[in-house]
UniProtKB/TrEMBL annotation:
One of its GO terms (cellular component) is endoplasmic reticulum. It comes from Seriola lalandi dorsalis. InterPro entries: ABM_dom, Dimeric_a/b-barrel, NECAB1/2/3. This is N-terminal EF-hand calcium-binding protein 1-like. It holds the Pfam family ABM. Transmembrane segments: none annotated. One of its GO terms (biological process) is regulation of amyloid precursor protein biosynthetic process. Residues 189-277 form the ABM domain.
Length: 289
């Protein structure tokens, strides 16, 4: 190692900068010239796509947002597949390099040193898949990646962006209408939204919630808005009554609804929980008469 160090540091400055390392390794790159070039282009493409996603996601339709989340998730799993294949290659090279030196070590020391040097790699070796297989990445979700690795940081950024985007859209449960209803307006829709808020952001959240509740209650197709704050908890439950399901779905795409989502996304402790229920319209008419 000392001989290698001095061969790179030819001017003997006791410092290995980027220029010296580049000058030394360039003649030895071989097939890795095209690999490193492709990685540089891929890195630029990913950052460009993430910037565009950040700018256009909020203004996209519900279908457009779903497609964006799907593409980000698939990109992440493909990168994880590539990462696991590289880890397999590194393990194989490491094992071959250690074969000739094992006779110099004590047998009882080998397991400890091996585990201390590369924890978690054994799990990845059994899950290596071909990076050229377009479906292989779907099977590698959850494979651990070393945090100090460049690709690991890229994957983590993608996963964080995906999680944030998924939180910005309410998780809607499928709605089953009463097939026995005789008329179009025989049912009204009850929407329950439960939001757990970080303690430090409660005051800011309450201000945004009041603006949203006032604006929503003034809508033509909205029947009523009620907010409940659970005692001893920073949890708010909002009930919205709408004349029909289509009215509520249309309101989700309005500026008021999207502005409220943007305001509270960073204040929530967990993703918002949304549930819906159809109620007979006669109940509402009878109780309000």
């Amino acid at each position: 190692m000392q001989e290698l160090y001095y061969s790179i540091d030819r001017q003997q400055t006791d410092n290995l900068d980027i220029d010296k390392l580049s000058e030394y390794f360039t003649p030895h790159l071989g097939e890795y010239v095209s690999v490193l070039s492709a990685l540089e282009k891929l890195n630029v493409a990913i950052l460009k796509a993430m910037d565009k996603t950040k700018e256009e996601y909020q203004g996209s339709s519900v279908l457009g947002q779903f497609v964006t989340r799907f593409l980000l998730r698939e990109t992440s799993t493909q990168l994880q597949s590539l990462q696991s294949s590289l880890d397999c290659a590194m393990d194989a090279v490491h094992d071959q390099g250690c074969t000739g030196r094992r006779i110099l070590k004590k047998p009882q020391d080998l397991p400890v040193q091996r585990l201390a040097k590369r924890p978690g790699r054994r799990i990845q070796r059994n899950m290596c898949l071909s990076p050229t297989d377009p479906y292989s990445g779907m099977l590698t979700t959850g494979v651990s990646v070393e945090p100090d690795n460049h690709w690991g940081s890229q994957i983590n950024q993608l996963e964080q962006l995906i999680d944030k985007l998924e939180c910005e859209s309410p998780h809607l449960e499928p709605l089953k209408e009463d097939t026995l209803a005789g008329t179009y307006k025989s049912n009204i829709l009850l929407v329950q939204r439960q939001m757990s808020v970080k303690e430090r952001d409660v005051e800011q959240f309450q201000q945004a919630l009041k603006i949203y509740a006032d604006a929503t209650s003034s809508q033509l197709n909205n029947l009523h808005v009620s907010v409940q704050n659970l005692p001893d908890r920073s949890c708010f439950i909002m009930y919205e009554f709408w004349q029909d399901r289509l009215s509520w779905m249309s309101y989700l795409q309005s500026t008021i609804s999207k502005t409220f989502q943007r305001c509270i996304i960073d204040s929530l402790e967990d993703p918002e929980m949304v549930s819906t229920m159809l109620l007979p319209a006669s109940w509402w008419i009878m109780n309000n008469n």
